[in-house]
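User: I'll paste a sequence; please echo it back and then give the predicted structure.

Assistant: Echoing your sequence first, then the prediction.
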Amino acid sequence: MTNDYHQIYNDRGSYTPCFEKKLIEEKREDGYWIEAFQIDNQSSIGLVAYGLGQGQVNFYPNPCTTVELGKAIPIQKLAGPVAMDQADITGNGLNDIIICYQYGNTMKDCDPEGGKIVWLENSEQKNDRNLWTSHYIGKSIAMHRLKVGHFTQTERWEIIGLPIVGKPFDLLSPVPVLLFRQPDDALNAEEWPCEIINEQFFHLIHDAKKCNANKLDNLLIASREGINWLYFNEKNQKWAIENIGEGEQGEKQQTPYYGSGCVDAGKVGNDSLAYIATVEPFHGNVVAVYVKDTKNSLKNIQWKRYVLDVYGYPNVHGEGPAHHVVCADFDKDGDDEFLVALRGPSPNQGVYYYKPIDLSRGLFAKWKVSEDSAARIAIADFNNNGLLDFATIGYYVPGYYTAENPSISIYYNRFANKNAQGTKEIQVTKQNNELLFKVPRPNKALQYEMMPFMTVGDISLSLEVIPPNSLRQIDKNTYIKVLSGIIMWTSSSTELSKTVNHSRTFVCEPKTVSSLAICSNENVITTGNEGALLIVLKINETMDTIPRFDSIEKVTIENVLPEFCSEEVRKLSFQFIRCNKYDWGKEKFKDHECYDMKGFDIKFADNDEHLCYIQLWAAEQGINCVVHNHSDAFFCEVNACIVNGTGKGGMQYLISSKENYDPLTTLESQFQKLEIPSLYEHGPLWDIDAQKKPVLREDGTVVYPWHKWQSNTDDSSVKSFDIWMAFQFNAHLSAIP
């Protein structure tokens, strides 16, 4: 192997990586590990993150599917957790976590009783009620990295444990490499069978990369010996070690460390091992790549080392700023780029992006894509748009390095379309003094998005889209009206003594009422393949009860569209207009206070297909808000009550659409009464055919019975108003699921 220092080629032209930062959590008290993790088969990919100091292993739900950023779900609390991997140990289809802990203060001052490995049984919990059950596997002092796979056989899981040192205050002795095999009964086993693979060759193992050759897994190991390939030879049933490169040797006068510290393998074309990216030496400052020497045959591959960058100088402890390297295809050209995590301090802090230009000459271009301290990097398509994103956690480990304000952030890949940075899937414009929302179809939504648009009293309303197979946190002050798709949740039934599954679509059962509240055991709602489009009503936390208004002037209405919306729509005022101001209401409401507020139109962005129109109504107590049967309407209408002034108002309807209505002869007693309490909705009143579609008249209008909103009276001498929302759905999209 030869070493060549090579100048980086930096193309600032049309090829420019672009990542959009989203802060998940800041001002942490520790920071070390971060990894992409899917908690179940339905939820979007989230993150597991933790540090050595506090030892709190947390799951962070995907921020595209939750409104409570940084709300962590505790998994387990361990003393000094270091590395983790994941695999389905139980065989139930859910990945469990394999993790090592009780490291000690530093690798020099490591815990002689520590280095324990456990697997944490995935509880599939989406709340903080129950920690995951811990199952013991084994231990070895200063356990620093571990990899789960099938290294000698494919029937059961195996874990290779890689300590960084062999005993306290000894950096010179070799370290054992151990293999743990899954026992027959992993749930109840006291520990896993263990054997030593090698205990003479390796020193200061800092990291490893699992690769796959044929059916068995193998490892690239970064240690004081450089980069080595460890694999099990099936023919002679023995473990083999092959050297790829000796790592950094030129800093021995500046630091006690040499060799390699981090490793990953990059794919180019059809070659899954086209180059090896490294950080060297242990906690090093050198970024290097190893490229196959094309002059050698495949049977006797030799590797050539190219140094791409040197970030600063070793500190007083002999350490540099680089701590992790990962390879992945971010620009979707079929070739892997790689990222390097720099823990700091500035200017050698952040994440650098390297792209291969000409491997035969060791030519790479680079860009800085993050300024934050990065201990490690996790990679996944977090917003489900087909492009790989990355996430980082700041480095905060006393005895090594402590970054200012260690944080967790996701960096969304905007590479394919830099103009897409900041683009919202929900768009709003002004149309005839009303708001027009253009929304994604929820089954094709790429990420969670919320657009608050109005407050009524102390109740805020927002339009939200939740992508498929995602979750959203909710609380007791959250009420939800579904516009499209399906939401699901679970609750406990005291009567049945079991868990009950619930779902909600754009309508509840015909001619019934249903609460907009969500009583979820786990304080979450989830979506399936359909995703969901919602109107979310959020009550101010200081409110004990729904307010009762004795004057329409006391109902404060505000436009709360976010700042990223145009000034034109943010200046649009929402107000109730008294119905006797309209030609159609001059006589009907001459002496009665009835108001309406127009309005909000919602269309799908892909083809402008109309979904629904929303308007608000208000009526003082005791008003008949006009009997009608929508003889000229092409929509399917349901109402959701925001405030029921007396608690007795709601819909009244004739039992059949075939019944005629005559204001002079039809008795009030002939109307069926459907009281709709505050924050409830009612189901369809229109006629429904055998295919669960609305029945249409010959002219395409929807068949309804005669009906009305009736605001009732009570014994109180205080005046009150009903306030409700009318949802007029496209009849062609209103088949009941």
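Confidence is low (pLDDT under 50) at residues 1-14, 417-422. The chain has two domains: 21-413, 427-733.
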